[in-house]
């Protein structure tokens, strides 16, 4: 299992659990996924060779086993990775994947799931002041974001143009280059910035 996973509200995330069987292989009697929060365990999903697969409330509509082989008859239970869809803030917790085997007994491991909210932030501002006619501001970047524009008419008849570039900060935005291009009459002025995005590592809870 991964020691930790993270995702944003509304997104999809996989919690991986793969059983490396021995030689000769042991018999897998059941696999149980549990949510561990504040010392309380709550069953999420169960795969049983005789009873089939069940996902319990309130996870029933949003959680499923990734591998179709888990639902086959007979099932293959070596890979019981589960997939969360439409992630919610309340999903943030530790999740235990427990294998009940014979004759080796129970084996389990845990993954810590962190859920964040997608919040757009202004990462760069470009201003062209006191132009007549007003300047045109454009952005050149590989970042997936959007630009906002605001024009302010000054008392002397000139115009100040202000543009903000807005993105959802993530690891992918770190060290990305963002260039502001100001075009005024026949002039073309550019200025660039490299983003420094600090990502906090999730706390791993061990019991």
Automatic annotation (TrEMBL):
Stored InterPro entries: CD80_C2-set, Ig-like_dom, Ig-like_dom_sf, Ig-like_fold, Ig_sub, Ig_V-set, Nectin/Nectin-like
Record bears the keyword Isomerase: no
Membrane topology: Single-pass type I membrane protein
A Pfam family recorded for this sequence: C2-set_2
Family affiliation: Belongs to the nectin family.
Protein name as it appears in the record: Ig-like domain-containing protein
Lineage top rank: taxon: Eukaryota
Localisation: Cell junction, Adherens junction; Cell membrane
Domain Ig-like residues, every copy: 1-114
Keywords linked to the UniProt accession: Cell adhesion, Cell junction, Cell membrane, Disulfide bond, Glycoprotein, Membrane, Repeat, Signal, Transmembrane, Transmembrane helix
Annotated source species: Xenoophorus captivus
Organismal lineage: Eukaryota, Metazoa, Chordata, Craniata, Vertebrata
Gene3D superfamilies reported for this sequence: Immunoglobulins
């Amino acid at each position: 299992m991964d020691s930790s996973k993270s995702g944003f509200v509304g997104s999809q995330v996989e919690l991986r659990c793969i059983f490396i069987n021995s030689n000769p292989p042991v018999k897998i009697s059941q696999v149980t996924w549990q949510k561990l929060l504040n010392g309380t365990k709550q069953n999420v999903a169960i795969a049983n060779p005789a009873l089939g697969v069940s996902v319990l409330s309130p996870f029933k509509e949003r959680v499923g086993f990734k591998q179709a082989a888990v639902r086959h008859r007979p099932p293959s239970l070596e890979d019981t990775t589960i997939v969360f869809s439409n992630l919610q803030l309340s999903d943030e917790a530790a999740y235990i994947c427990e294998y009940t085997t014979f004759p080796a007994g129970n084996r389990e491991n845990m993954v810590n799931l962190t859920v964040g909210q997608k919040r757009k932030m202004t990462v760069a501002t470009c201003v062209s002041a006191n132009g007549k006619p007003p300047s045109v501001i454009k952005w050149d970047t590989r970042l997936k974001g959007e630009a906002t524009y605001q024009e302010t008419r000054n008392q002397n008849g000139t115009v100040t143009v202000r543009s903000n570039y807005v993105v959802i900060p993530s690891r992918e935005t770190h060290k990305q280059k963002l260039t502001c291009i100001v075009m005024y009459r026949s002039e073309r002025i550019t200025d660039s910035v490299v983003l420094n995005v600090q990502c906090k590592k999730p706390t791993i809870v061990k019991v």
